[in-house]
Specification:
Distance between the termini: 101 Å
Order of helices and strands: HH
Shape: rod-shaped
Number of strands: 0
Number of helices: 2
Radius of gyration: 34 Å
Length: 82
C-alpha cells in the first residue's frame, strides 16, 4: 500500500474513535459539574439551617435568661456585680 493510503486509513481510524471518546469525556465533565453544583447547593442549604438553628438557640437563651431574671431578681443583681 502506498504511504498516502495508509495515512488516510490511520487518520480516518483516529477520527472515528476520537469522536466517541471526546463525547464520553464531555459527558463525564458535565456530570461532574452537575454533581459539584448539587453539592454546593446542599452545603448552602445546610449553612442556612445552621444559621436558623443558631438564631433559634440564641432567642431561646435570651428567653431563659429573662425568665431567670424575673424569678430571681436578687441573685441576678449579685451576679452582675461580680
Amino acid at each position: 500500500m502506498p504511504i498516502g493510503v495508509v495515512t488516510i486509513i490511520v487518520v480516518g481510524t483516529i477520527a472515528i474513535f476520537s469522536i466517541p471518546i471526546i463525547a464520553i469525556l464531555t459527558d463525564a465533565s458535565r456530570r461532574k459539574a452537575k454533581l459539584q453544583l448539587q453539592m454546593v447547593e446542599k452545603e448552602i442549604e445546610l449553612e442556612k439551617l445552621k444559621n436558623e438553628n443558631f438564631l433559634i438557640e440564641t432567642e431561646k437563651m435570651k428567653v431563659e435568661l429573662e425568665k431567670l431574671k424575673l424569678e430571681n431578681p436578687l441573685e441576678d443583681s449579685n451576679f452582675l456585680s461580680k
